[in-house]
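The records we work with from here on pair a chain with its fold. These numbers are not coordinates but entries in a learned vocabulary of local backbone shapes. To see the layout at work, look at the sequence and tokens printed below.
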Amino acid sequence: MTTRRDFLAGAGALAGAVFTSCDLMTPHAHAQPAGAARRREVVINGRRVKTVDIHAHCAFPEAMKMMGREVRPQSLIMAADRIRAMDEQGIDVEALSINPYWYKADRDVAAALIKLQNEKLAELVAAQPDRFVAFATMALQHPDLAVEQIEYGIKKLGLRGVSVGGSVEGTELANPKFHPVWAKCEELGCLVFIHPVGTHELAPRLQGNGGLENTIGNPLETTLALSHLIYEGTLDRFPGLKICAAHGGGYLPSYADRSDAVCITFPDRCAAVPLKKKPTEYLRQLYYDTIVFTPRALRHLADQVGPGQIMMGTDYPFPWTHTSVDHILSTPGLSDAERAGMLGDTAARLLGITA
């Protein structure tokens, strides 16, 4: 069994990072072949494309311990294994994020945890600057503190964006208390990566076979988060806000026209906050990852939101797919430029990744 001492010794070169699944706790098996993998290079119409994975997870046990949480030994995946997997899959750069587990923390704990965590992210990136960039974390439950953390993470530590949950202990991201946070993100021009933390209010109905708390609950929370940001006027208030939604935006892009229809059929239900555009038009100013599993689903997402709004995601190390590059390459109806955009050009532009 891997011990904490073994982990720290093996991962010390990359600042004590461990690559974990979305929930930070559940173990997942990832067999890796012995020896170094040959690095796959992705070429489209004669041009080498720098591929960027917008959706990948890591964690720092030292920070998690501040919330009384531990990473199970079975779920540890060393940085060397991750780079080997990236080479095999054809992924040049990975944008690392940490799913929020600290939204219950009081101000002092949250301040110390986020400072440690963001500095560790910066150290990890500095150890492998050609392979990793990272999203800063913030204590969104304390909005004024979060604004300071964004400033420090982006301006002082050189992190490339911020990551947030789909809600904050049941409070929607569109709540006016978070307006100062979105104003700061808009001012800095940094990408906001939204990843669900689960629809806990529905826990009794998500029990049983099928892992419904994840299968349904996670995309449902993203759907709710984006819908509130649209209908409550947050995207009108902050038109320059750059948001990327995990898991293809949840269910919203797949049934988006109903969002328009409700304002036509029941106009009184959309009257409290008059919008500047149709709800579906806001979808084309958001960004999405490619975790929608089939070429047909990716083609539909591109039709609905525009191919230029989509970026490759793996959700590593959660084993949804090991073929994210081929997922894009095999989707019909995309131009070379659109494929290159999804594979890395769009993410590189938004995250400031140079050739």
User: Anything to note?
Assistant: Confidence is low (pLDDT under 50) at residues 1-13, 25-34.
